[in-house]
Write a structure and sequence with these properties.
The protein is α+β, with helices and mostly antiparallel strands and about 180 residues long. The protein contains seven helices and five strands, in the order E-E-E-H-E-H-E-H-H-H-H-H.
Length: about 180
């Protein structure tokens, strides 16, 4: 007996190409697929001070000022809202970020990228000194990596099982609280 319709049999596919993710999910497309990026600030003891969640395609340098604005450390007297010094990697040097730090009187240890160094050679101006003192300070930047390692020990935070950014951020807050304890 012949089948009446030669088309596909069974239920239709569950895959629905639904366009971009809603903004409350903090998920964006990057090289590895749909990911979330945690922009985090920590102190010298690898304890998280503040963080911002974005989609995976958002550049680090564009979120630099937003993350530093999130710092709020209560204590005796007025709350601290800015660090004494910022240690950052080559993903953060930009004129805008350096000007923002200068306005607030925050010292910076941020190495320049090779393309910026080449550009600076063509147009002489104010050189950025990254001498021996800066190199020695830059060795302390590993505390950020240690902070991320502590956060990512939780499988749920490392692989992002939560649907909304709100519940994912709650997990990061809980992890940060345990770091402080």
């Amino acid at each position: 007996m012949a089948r009446p319709c030669p088309g596909a049999q069974g239920d239709p596919s569950n895959y629905k190409k639904s366009g971009p993710e809603p903004p409350d999910h903090a998920i964006g497309r990057s090289r590895g697929g749909l990911t979330t990026k945690i922009h985090l600030v920590c102190d010298g003891k690898a304890r998280a001070l503040a963080f911002v969640l974005t989609g995976g395609q958002v550049a680090d340098t564009s979120m630099f000022t937003c993350v530093l604005d999130e710092i709020h450390i209560p204590g005796r007297g007025p709350a601290r809202t800015r660090p004494d010094r910022v240690l950052a990697d080559k993903g953060y040097p930009s004129k805008k970020n350096r000007a923002w730090l200068r306005e607030r009187g925050v010292k910076a240890t941020i190495p320049e990228r090779d393309d910026q160094i080449a550009h600076r050679r063509k147009r002489p101006g104010r050189p950025i000194d990254f001498g021996d003192d800066q190199r020695e300070r830059y060795k302390g930047r590993n505390v950020v990596e240690r902070c991320f390692n502590f956060v990512k020990q939780w499988r749920g935070l490392a692989s992002r099982y939560d649907k909304t950014a709100r519940s994912y951020a709650a997990g990061i807050c809980l992890s940060a609280a345990l770091q402080w304890i």
